[in-house]
Amino acid sequence: MKNIVITGGAGFIGSHVVRLFVNKYPEYNIICLDKLTYAGNLANLKDIEDKPNYKFVKMDICDFEAFYQLMQDEKVDGIIHLAAESHVDRSIKDPFTFAQTNVMGTLALLQAAKLYWESLPEKYDGKRFYHISTDEVYGALELTHPEGIEPPFTTTASSSEHHLAYGKDFFYEDTKYNPHSPYSAAKASSDHFVRAYHDTYGMPTIVTNCSNNYGPYQFPEKLIPLFINNIRHRKPLPVYGKGENVRDWLYVEDHARAIDLIFHEGKTAETYNIGGFNEWKNIDLIKVMIKTVDRILGNPEGSSLDLITYVTDRAGHDLRYAIDSTKLQKELGWEPSLQFEEGIEKTVRWYLDNQEWMDNVTSGDYQKYYETMYSNR
Ligand code: NAD
Ligand code: TYD
């Protein structure tokens, strides 16, 4: 595969995938396709924008005609599809945009790829449509309390010293879909379309479902960058509900490495779960962030704890996500490279060192949006 389109390449995870592919595969043509919504930012790719094997195309994935033309012009062999509306809180306010981009946009890519690839003499040979999805499509797991023992329980599979699991169940590749938010419902629908294109037309597809990512270049409406920035500026930290929801965190570069491996070595039509067995209750994670930011900035230990502000819970807030990535680890030999403690330290330092990036993305429209959301809580 030579000519590869990475959709959503100017977003958080997409920019790490683009950077990895551009640097690792000088022989490939990497086409970063992005509409540059509020979440897309070419500053995320500044360090590779002059590389000869990199090209940026501003395009809406819903524009079937334009994408079909691009497939022909660039002789596209592979698509790694990350473009999406990705924030649950926004999906609660504006579900139509999520259905449009995540469902109709994915369908437009699939159909354009089908028409182009089926027109070639080799048809689908050497082609791949890789769709990046989320663990949120599986719904929510319970926090289980077996006789007299309160979670967390210790797991042995963790890559982190944290070694915690907040229940006995995990999301497996065959866990039934049960999405609860408009975001996860739209992602679930797009996953079904991708699988349908394999089953109906024989398109060589792959789907992966990953847990929550963290790391540099994440838009600061998501928990980790938002809270690091707020701690730095002594702004309130809006903790939804009691802060008891559990998320399973993976360093973004480990996700990008998994995508590279699966794109090249994953089996067609398979699903792989991606996650590092690294569950944290929100409130515990927030305390780690506070401790780390305070230490790095030289504030007295615990001085930012008073910023924690409990606010109305998110509607339909999923209690616990936890991915079992044993299949990926055993079949393809992937494992997370970073301990969580290292990852969070790197992440905090990156946001503190890149205030200009933060100021740029939090200015203008986004800032207004954030203030409206926050003042309504
Ligand atoms: P993000 O919101 O940071 O980036 C999304 C990118 O898609 C942006 O660059 C945006 O401009 C672009 N985009 C949005 N609508 C578009 C459209 N109509 N046409 C073209 N481009 C468009 O998202 P992210 O966190 O990097 O997530 C990327 C993908 O990974 C998504 O599909 C998401 O569902 C999935 N995912 C994310 C996480 C996570 O923790 N962030 C976890 C698992 C899976
Ligand atoms: P988020 O980063 O939005 O990811 P997702 O909802 O896709 O898991 O949120 C992570 C967790 O943090 C989730 O349980 C919601 C919670 N949260 C807050 O408590 N306050 C906030 O301001 C945000 C953005 C999230």
Structural summary, described in words:
It is a single chain. This protein is an alpha/beta fold. It is built from twelve helices and 14 strands. It has a seven-stranded parallel beta sheet with strand order 3-2-1-4-5-8-12, with helices on both faces. Strands 9-11-13 form a three-stranded mixed beta sheet. It starts with a strand and ends with a helix. Bound molecules: nicotinamide-adenine-dinucleotide and thymidine-5'-diphosphate (TYD). Thymidine-5'-diphosphate (TYD) binds next to α6 and β10.
Topology summary:
Layout: E1 3-7, H1 12-24, E2 29-34, E3 54-58, H2 64-74, E4 78-81, H3 88-93, H4 95-118, E5 128-134, E6 153-154, E7 164-165, H5 182-201, E8 205-210, E9 212-214, H6 223-232, E10 237-240, E11 246-251, H7 252-265, E12 271-274, E13 279-281, H8 282-297, E14 308-311, H9 326-332, H10 340-353, H11 355-361, H12 364-375
Parallel strand pairs: 1-2, 1-4, 2-3, 4-5, 5-8, 8-12, 9-11, 10-14
Antiparallel strand pairs: 6-7, 11-13
Number of strands: 14
Largest sheet: 7 strands, parallel
Strand fraction equals: 15-25%
Query: What is the molecular shape?
Result: globular
In short:
This protein is of the alpha/beta class and 377 residues long.
Task: Name the descriptors.
seven-stranded parallel sheet; alpha/beta; binds thymidine-5'-diphosphate; three-stranded mixed sheet; 12 helices; 14 strands
